[in-house]
Amino acid sequence: MALPEDDPATASAEAVAEAPLVEAPADTVAGEVVLRLTDLVKTFPGVRALDGVQLEVRAGEVHCLLGQNGAGKSTLIKVLAGVHQPDSGQVEWRGEPATFANPQAAMKAGIATIYQELDLVEDLSVAENAFLGHEYRSFGFVRRGRMARHTRQILSRLGHGEIPPGRMVRSLPAAGKQIVSMARALSHEARLIIMDEPSAVLAHDEVGNLFRIIRELTAQGIAVIYISHRLEEIREIGDRVTVLKDGRTTAANLPARDTPTRDLVSRMTGRTIEYVFPDRPTDDSAGADLLQVEGLTRTGEFADVSLNVRAGEIVGIAGLVGSGRSELLETIYGARLPEAGTVRMDGKVLRPGVGAAVRAGMGMAPEERKSQALLLGEPIYRNVTLATFGRYARLGFTNAAKERAEADRIAETLELRPRDVDRPVRTLSGGNQQKVVVGRWLLGGTKLLLLDEPTRGVDVGARAELYQVIRALAAQGVGVLLVSSEVPEVLGLADRVLVMREGRVVREAAAGELDENTVLDLVMAGSLMEGAPA
Amino acid sequence: MSDATPTPTATPERPQLPAQSPPADPAETAVASDKAGSGGKLSWWRGDGGDGAKRNLGLIGVLAALIVVGAVTKPDLYGDPNWVWNNVLAILQLASVVGVVTVGMTFVIIGGGIDLSVGAIVALAGVWCTTVATQSYGAGGMIFTALAVGVCVGLVNGVLISYGRLVPFIATLAMLVAARGLAASISNKQTQVSSSTFINDIAARKVIGIPILVYILGAVVLAGWVVLNRTTFGRRTIAVGGNPEAARLAGINVRRHTMLLYALSGLCCGIAAIMLTSQATSAQAAMANLYELDAIAAAIIGGTLLSGGRGTIVGSLLGVIIFATITNLFAINGLSIEAQNMVKGGIIVAAVLVQQFQFKSVTRLLARNRVTTAT
């Protein structure tokens, strides 16, 4: 679609600026390209998050972004929202090259973002949240009445006039909070609204309402970038689809309704980078049951999960964020208390608490490396020995020399780079930080390793090394329970796979019996497809 | 792998990894070598954190500057070595009581908490150990009482914070009010004179020319340094304050440790109560007023991060000594307490500003290194 060189509508924008507050920007021409990204690149230390993204969004359309975890969707959103600056590539906004130096600039230009974890101030009112940062004021006083009136107008435009503008956001349900987020977007006269998995926090019937609102917005010429893992939703609400994989656009502007699921899935997964997975042992070398979990339940997280892990076996759990997999792992590890069910190690029921789990020989590498596993300012060796320093101590006195030697041995085994164990962990790349977390459990006879997203944010080379390490551990008889949202990783590394969706195990099979598309279908079947055969 | 419970020193064999060690990157080795060697046998004294040592050098610089100011304003006094030596002892003696409290405070703050009740605990312990009933048990009974009261009140703080899940600020603020109230009611708002010559002698006497109070400060600082840097207790303190979630998931009992930290702070308050009672040869409910602010300020000047996870005992000690030196400087120049307090406030702000600047430049440097190594 050709871009108008001189936008005839710009002049009229000034004229209507003072006019009705709630109508869509008057200069929006339906079907006009509002946003065009060309060859966008963004790198972080150790990771190339965006590696040539193309995207074209038209006014009045719902443009869906599809991609697996780590495909670069979140980074792309943050670039558009002005949080990150691209390293190279062009952003064209309404026909003009644009750079958004900060979130305020992006909002001013008319790009509003509704993040997955809604960024509202819980203890301010609905109106205050909607106009946060650009309140109506005169002489330094906030004009509460005008703000409340305008908020009410916006809310009724969203079909939710019943939400009182004066109500505290804290007291609203998740769906109501989302409406407030959208009201904030509209208060900025947004021409493009980015929604990051908006349905993830909503119940079934609320999704329908969300779609109705989206349709009304697009009818007014506002463009929507819609991100979701649920293919069914994309079919229902989307106009066009762009697929991202490994930071690249693999398919652009596919028709959302007519493109076959197989095509979409294969474009999301057909990898340019082949991960090198270590070979599985040819004979069935796995030993006796190490971990037995029966009927484990936590309301709202997972229900009635039973599984077992044998010594020397790698069991993988595939599932999306929110499928209850991380919570399950933490419950097995004793970091959360189960409401029902038992966890047994070596046939003995574990007492609650992390301490008991560690003493029984469990170790966990949690999902959030930095916030859950590492002391970033402390040296590497102290992070490696965080769970074991007491064992090297005598009469309460730590043995730093011994700890350094042990950590150095681990660093050598895992090919940690750089290998100086006195460096603060902060200075390591993501992959090497992950090695420190895994290395912690190589000390002191861990029998069962729980790995939650072990390769998140880890570059390709370091991934292959981590896979080798995990397989080598299994070969020594360590049981491994692995959670990952990257299906190929689960299939390539694990001996046996459990597929989780919405807190339940929907399928269990040997890794060889499943392929990626089957698992993705199982994992993605959303709430709109409830009752679908597993 | 065996099915027995893990033996303490069990070491797994190395996983067999592909031999693909990359060629040494010059940038990488350059970064690695600036950190003085890796692994291997190291002396017992090494490893108190390079950053912390650098910060402490800055504090020593401040101290030197204060002495220069003193020498310039009172050249006649500073020209007399005898007077200088006595003045140094006077400063250390002035710093001794707050210094002991600050050691406990440093542990609490590194562990991610704060203890506003230290002054009140000192007063309560002081009053309790000087009641007529307690004094009838002699000096030993008085010392035991002071320490026991300190530990018990600290434990109450600790239980409220770690098991009752109160915010440390609120729990210890409540204790501040309550402990002083209890002290006032025990003492009936009277000053209780200590009749124990043993207790009173602690502050009055010197051994080899140095006041006993200074020895006590030295012993507490040394013990604090050893505990923080050389014991599992200290390591847990840093882990719990630096990243409680990581500590918990590594199997550390975060709650119990948090509780013990407040008990430790209470113990330091008990020791300080004996020292202060000895100095005044009496105790009263208003004693050790605002010690909590002095201790917190000293710890912060000393480079302890208020959010936890970082701090040094030596830095805290230097913080206390700097404050005492300022007080001393103003006293010998005959200046008012008001002016002194203004200068102290300025020094707190300046110290934190300087540390932030240093910290930022250090992290920026590290970030740059990371970019060069992570390609």
Structure overview:
The complex is a heterodimer of chains A (534) and B (375). Chain A is α/β, with parallel strands linked by helices and 534 residues long. Chain A has 3 domains: 32-110 and 190-272, P-loop containing nucleotide triphosphate hydrolases (Rossmann fold, 3-Layer(aba) Sandwich), CATH 3.40.50; 125-189, no CATH class; 298-526, P-loop containing nucleotide triphosphate hydrolases (Rossmann fold, 3-Layer(aba) Sandwich), CATH 3.40.50. Chain A is 32% helix and 24% strand. Chain A contains 19 helices and 22 strands. Chain A has a 6-stranded mixed beta sheet with strand order 6-9-10-3-11-12, with helices on both faces. In chain A, β11 (240-245) and β12 form a beta hairpin. The two termini of chain A are 42 Å apart. The model of chain A is unreliable at 1-28 and 526-534 (pLDDT under 50). The radius of gyration of chain B is 24 Å and the shape is globular. Chain B has a single domain, classed as ABC transporter involved in vitamin B12 uptake, BtuC, CATH 1.10.3470. In chain B, β2 (206-207) and β3 form a beta hairpin. Chain B contains 16 helices and 4 strands. With 375 residues, chain B is mainly α. In chain B, α4 runs antiparallel to α13 (254-280), α5 runs parallel beside α8 (168-187) and α14 (291-301) packs parallel to α16 (337-373).
Q: How does the SSE layout of this entry go?
A:
The complex is a heterodimer of chains A (534) and B (375).
Chain A: H1 10-16, E1 33-44, E2 47-58, E3 62-66, H2 73-80, E4 88-93, E5 96-97, H3 103-109, E6 111-114, H4 126-130, E7 137-138, E8 141-142, H5 144-157, H6 174-187, E9 192-196, H7 204-219, E10 223-227, H8 231-237, E11 240-245, E12 248-255, H9 261-269, E13 289-298, E14 302-310, E15 314-318, H10 325-332, E16 340-345, E17 348-349, H11 354-359, E18 362-365, H12 369-373, H13 380-384, H14 389-392, H15 400-413, H16 430-440, E19 448-452, H17 460-475, E20 479-484, H18 487-493, E21 496-501, E22 504-510, H19 516-524
Parallel strand pairs in A: 3-10, 3-11, 6-9, 9-10, 15-20, 15-21, 18-19, 19-20
Antiparallel strand pairs in A: 1-2, 1-4, 4-5, 7-8, 11-12, 13-14, 13-16, 16-17, 21-22
Helix pairs in contact in A: 5-6
Chain B: H1 26-33, H2 50-73, H3 75-78, H4 81-110, H5 118-129, H6 132-135, H7 138-162, H8 168-187, E1 192-193, H9 197-204, E2 206-207, E3 210-211, H10 212-230, H11 232-242, H12 244-249, H13 254-280, E4 282-283, H14 291-301, H15 313-332, H16 337-373
Antiparallel strand pairs in B: 1-4, 2-3
